Amino acid sequence: MAHGVTVIAIDGPVAAGKTAVGRKLAQSLGFAYLDTGIMYRAITWLALKNDVPVEDEAALGDLARTSPIELVGTNSDHVSVAGHTLGPELRESPVDRNVSVVSKATSVRTEMVAQQRKIADQSNIVMIGRDIGTVVLPDADLKIYLTASPENRAKRRWQEMQDRGQVVELMTVLSETLKRDEIDTGRENSPLKPGEDAWELNTDGLNIQQVVQQIITRAENL
Ligand code: DC
Q: Total domain count for the chain?
Protein backbone atom coordinates (compact mmCIF):
# COMPACT_ATOMS: atom_id res chain seq x y z
CA MET A 1 0.00 0.00 0.00
CA ALA A 2 1.73 3.04 -1.35
CA HIS A 3 0.81 6.04 0.82
CA GLY A 4 -0.23 7.05 4.32
CA VAL A 5 -3.95 6.40 4.38
CA THR A 6 -5.42 3.28 2.77
CA VAL A 7 -8.90 3.43 1.37
CA ILE A 8 -11.06 0.50 0.28
CA ALA A 9 -14.22 1.43 -1.63
CA ILE A 10 -17.11 -1.02 -1.83
CA ASP A 11 -20.06 -0.24 -4.07
CA GLY A 12 -22.97 -2.28 -5.33
CA PRO A 13 -26.75 -2.61 -5.35
CA VAL A 14 -28.97 -2.95 -2.33
CA ALA A 15 -28.43 -6.14 -0.26
CA ALA A 16 -25.45 -7.44 -2.19
CA GLY A 17 -23.76 -7.94 1.19
CA LYS A 18 -21.83 -4.65 1.30
CA THR A 19 -22.63 -3.87 4.93
CA ALA A 20 -21.82 -7.27 6.39
CA VAL A 21 -18.71 -7.65 4.25
CA GLY A 22 -17.52 -4.07 4.78
CA ARG A 23 -17.91 -4.28 8.53
CA LYS A 24 -16.08 -7.56 8.85
CA LEU A 25 -13.36 -6.43 6.49
CA ALA A 26 -12.80 -3.22 8.46
CA GLN A 27 -12.68 -5.22 11.68
CA SER A 28 -10.16 -7.71 10.27
CA LEU A 29 -7.89 -4.97 8.94
CA GLY A 30 -8.32 -2.61 11.91
CA PHE A 31 -9.71 0.09 9.59
CA ALA A 32 -12.48 2.60 10.21
CA TYR A 33 -15.78 1.81 8.55
CA LEU A 34 -18.40 4.06 7.01
CA ASP A 35 -21.65 2.97 5.41
CA THR A 36 -22.50 6.13 3.45
CA GLY A 37 -26.13 5.03 2.99
CA ILE A 38 -26.77 6.06 6.59
CA MET A 39 -25.94 9.67 5.68
CA TYR A 40 -28.58 9.76 2.90
CA ARG A 41 -30.98 8.09 5.31
CA ALA A 42 -30.31 10.74 7.98
CA ILE A 43 -31.07 13.60 5.56
CA THR A 44 -34.23 11.77 4.46
CA TRP A 45 -35.35 11.37 8.07
CA LEU A 46 -34.69 15.04 8.75
CA ALA A 47 -36.59 16.13 5.63
CA LEU A 48 -39.62 14.05 6.67
CA LYS A 49 -39.40 15.37 10.22
CA ASN A 50 -39.23 19.01 9.02
CA ASP A 51 -41.90 18.57 6.34
CA VAL A 52 -39.43 19.35 3.58
CA PRO A 53 -40.92 17.89 0.38
CA VAL A 54 -38.61 15.13 -0.87
CA GLU A 55 -38.91 16.46 -4.43
CA ASP A 56 -37.74 19.95 -3.45
CA GLU A 57 -34.09 19.78 -4.44
CA ALA A 58 -33.17 23.29 -3.34
CA ALA A 59 -34.73 22.86 0.10
CA LEU A 60 -33.07 19.46 0.52
CA GLY A 61 -29.72 20.98 -0.39
CA ASP A 62 -30.18 23.75 2.19
CA LEU A 63 -31.11 21.16 4.77
CA ALA A 64 -28.06 19.00 3.99
CA ARG A 65 -25.64 21.95 4.03
CA THR A 66 -26.93 23.36 7.29
CA SER A 67 -27.15 19.98 9.07
CA PRO A 68 -23.72 18.35 8.99
CA ILE A 69 -23.79 14.69 9.92
CA GLU A 70 -21.70 13.43 12.80
CA LEU A 71 -20.84 9.76 13.12
CA VAL A 72 -21.63 8.21 16.48
CA GLY A 73 -19.52 5.18 17.37
CA THR A 74 -17.52 3.27 14.81
CA ASN A 75 -19.93 0.95 13.02
CA SER A 76 -22.25 3.33 11.12
CA ASP A 77 -25.28 2.26 13.16
CA HIS A 78 -25.94 5.70 14.58
CA VAL A 79 -25.43 9.28 13.47
CA SER A 80 -26.20 12.61 14.97
CA VAL A 81 -27.80 15.33 12.87
CA ALA A 82 -29.40 18.65 13.85
CA GLY A 83 -29.38 17.62 17.51
CA HIS A 84 -31.01 14.21 16.94
CA THR A 85 -29.19 10.94 17.55
CA LEU A 86 -30.62 8.45 15.08
CA GLY A 87 -30.29 4.69 14.69
CA PRO A 88 -33.03 2.11 14.06
CA GLU A 89 -35.49 4.73 12.77
CA LEU A 90 -33.24 5.18 9.76
CA ARG A 91 -34.06 1.61 8.68
CA GLU A 92 -37.82 1.93 8.99
CA SER A 93 -40.38 2.23 6.22
CA PRO A 94 -40.82 6.00 5.93
CA VAL A 95 -37.10 6.48 5.36
CA ASP A 96 -36.83 3.33 3.22
CA ARG A 97 -39.59 4.55 0.93
CA ASN A 98 -38.15 8.03 0.42
CA VAL A 99 -34.39 7.66 0.52
CA SER A 100 -33.95 6.80 -3.16
CA VAL A 101 -35.69 10.03 -4.15
CA VAL A 102 -33.72 12.17 -1.70
CA SER A 103 -30.43 10.62 -2.80
CA LYS A 104 -31.21 11.55 -6.42
CA ALA A 105 -30.93 15.25 -5.58
CA THR A 106 -27.67 16.70 -6.87
CA SER A 107 -27.68 19.30 -4.09
CA VAL A 108 -27.73 16.54 -1.47
CA ARG A 109 -25.12 14.40 -3.23
CA THR A 110 -22.65 17.30 -3.54
CA GLU A 111 -22.80 17.91 0.19
CA MET A 112 -22.61 14.21 1.16
CA VAL A 113 -19.63 13.64 -1.12
CA ALA A 114 -17.76 16.59 0.45
CA GLN A 115 -18.43 15.25 3.95
CA GLN A 116 -17.38 11.73 2.93
CA ARG A 117 -14.08 12.90 1.43
CA LYS A 118 -13.23 14.71 4.67
CA ILE A 119 -13.86 11.53 6.64
CA ALA A 120 -11.70 9.46 4.26
CA ASP A 121 -8.77 11.83 4.81
CA GLN A 122 -8.61 11.01 8.48
CA SER A 123 -7.66 7.33 8.69
CA ASN A 124 -7.49 3.99 6.91
CA ILE A 125 -11.06 3.24 6.00
CA VAL A 126 -13.49 0.86 4.34
CA MET A 127 -16.21 3.04 2.81
CA ILE A 128 -19.30 1.52 1.29
CA GLY A 129 -22.02 3.00 -0.89
CA ARG A 130 -23.02 3.33 -4.53
CA ASP A 131 -20.57 5.88 -5.91
CA ILE A 132 -17.52 5.59 -3.67
CA GLY A 133 -15.08 4.19 -6.26
CA THR A 134 -16.54 6.19 -9.14
CA VAL A 135 -17.17 9.64 -7.63
CA VAL A 136 -16.31 10.08 -3.95
CA LEU A 137 -12.87 8.46 -3.89
CA PRO A 138 -11.76 7.65 -7.43
CA ASP A 139 -8.19 7.28 -6.15
CA ALA A 140 -9.11 4.56 -3.64
CA ASP A 141 -6.46 1.86 -3.27
CA LEU A 142 -8.95 -0.92 -3.91
CA LYS A 143 -12.37 -0.59 -5.55
CA ILE A 144 -14.82 -3.41 -5.29
CA TYR A 145 -18.25 -3.74 -6.89
CA LEU A 146 -20.22 -6.40 -5.00
CA THR A 147 -23.13 -7.99 -6.80
CA ALA A 148 -25.56 -10.87 -6.35
CA SER A 149 -28.72 -11.96 -8.15
CA PRO A 150 -31.89 -9.92 -7.39
CA GLU A 151 -33.47 -13.05 -5.87
CA ASN A 152 -30.60 -13.60 -3.47
CA ARG A 153 -30.50 -9.93 -2.56
CA ALA A 154 -34.24 -9.85 -1.91
CA LYS A 155 -33.95 -12.97 0.26
CA ARG A 156 -31.15 -11.36 2.26
CA ARG A 157 -33.16 -8.18 2.79
CA TRP A 158 -36.26 -10.13 3.68
CA GLN A 159 -34.26 -12.08 6.28
CA GLU A 160 -32.87 -8.85 7.76
CA MET A 161 -36.41 -7.49 8.02
CA GLN A 162 -37.64 -10.70 9.65
CA ASP A 163 -34.81 -10.43 12.16
CA ARG A 164 -35.96 -6.90 12.99
CA GLY A 165 -39.51 -8.16 13.48
CA GLN A 166 -40.90 -6.56 10.30
CA VAL A 167 -43.53 -8.77 8.68
CA VAL A 168 -43.38 -8.59 4.90
CA GLU A 169 -43.82 -10.88 1.88
CA LEU A 170 -40.70 -11.99 0.05
CA MET A 171 -42.28 -11.05 -3.29
CA THR A 172 -42.90 -7.52 -2.00
CA VAL A 173 -39.25 -7.22 -1.03
CA LEU A 174 -38.20 -8.51 -4.44
CA SER A 175 -40.30 -5.96 -6.28
CA GLU A 176 -39.07 -3.16 -3.99
CA THR A 177 -35.49 -4.28 -4.58
CA LEU A 178 -35.98 -4.16 -8.35
CA LYS A 179 -37.62 -0.76 -8.09
CA ARG A 180 -34.75 0.64 -6.03
CA ASP A 181 -32.24 -0.81 -8.50
CA GLU A 182 -34.05 1.00 -11.26
CA ILE A 183 -33.94 4.35 -9.44
CA ASP A 184 -30.34 3.90 -8.30
CA THR A 185 -29.04 2.86 -11.74
CA GLY A 186 -31.26 5.25 -13.72
CA ARG A 187 -30.61 8.52 -11.91
CA GLU A 188 -28.78 11.27 -13.76
CA ASN A 189 -26.26 12.13 -11.06
CA SER A 190 -23.83 9.34 -10.10
CA PRO A 191 -25.93 6.40 -11.29
CA LEU A 192 -25.03 3.11 -9.67
CA LYS A 193 -22.62 1.27 -11.94
CA PRO A 194 -19.31 -0.54 -11.61
CA GLY A 195 -16.32 1.74 -12.21
CA GLU A 196 -14.11 0.74 -15.11
CA ASP A 197 -11.30 -0.19 -12.77
CA ALA A 198 -13.47 -1.83 -10.11
CA TRP A 199 -13.19 -5.49 -9.25
CA GLU A 200 -16.64 -7.06 -9.72
CA LEU A 201 -17.22 -9.70 -7.11
CA ASN A 202 -20.39 -11.78 -7.28
CA THR A 203 -21.34 -13.06 -3.84
CA ASP A 204 -23.93 -15.66 -4.94
CA GLY A 205 -23.08 -18.89 -3.15
CA LEU A 206 -20.34 -17.33 -1.00
CA ASN A 207 -20.63 -16.64 2.71
CA ILE A 208 -19.42 -13.40 4.28
CA GLN A 209 -16.16 -14.89 5.50
CA GLN A 210 -15.31 -16.19 2.03
CA VAL A 211 -15.96 -12.80 0.45
CA VAL A 212 -13.91 -11.01 3.12
CA GLN A 213 -11.04 -13.44 2.66
CA GLN A 214 -10.97 -12.85 -1.09
CA ILE A 215 -10.80 -9.10 -0.52
CA ILE A 216 -8.07 -9.39 2.11
CA THR A 217 -5.99 -11.45 -0.29
CA ARG A 218 -6.30 -8.67 -2.88
CA ALA A 219 -5.57 -5.97 -0.31
CA GLU A 220 -2.41 -7.75 0.77
CA ASN A 221 -1.16 -7.60 -2.79
CA LEU A 222 -1.67 -3.86 -3.22
O1 DC B 1 -27.28 1.30 1.31
P2 DC B 1 -28.59 1.90 1.80
O3 DC B 1 -29.80 1.06 1.49
O4 DC B 1 -28.55 2.29 3.24
O5 DC B 1 -28.73 3.24 0.94
C6 DC B 1 -29.84 4.06 1.09
C7 DC B 1 -30.08 4.87 -0.19
O8 DC B 1 -29.04 5.82 -0.37
C9 DC B 1 -30.18 4.07 -1.49
O10 DC B 1 -31.36 4.45 -2.18
C11 DC B 1 -29.00 4.48 -2.30
C12 DC B 1 -28.53 5.76 -1.67
N13 DC B 1 -27.09 5.87 -1.60
C14 DC B 1 -26.46 6.59 -2.59
O15 DC B 1 -27.13 7.07 -3.50
N16 DC B 1 -25.12 6.76 -2.54
C17 DC B 1 -24.39 6.23 -1.55
N18 DC B 1 -23.07 6.42 -1.54
C19 DC B 1 -25.01 5.46 -0.54
C20 DC B 1 -26.37 5.29 -0.60
A: 2
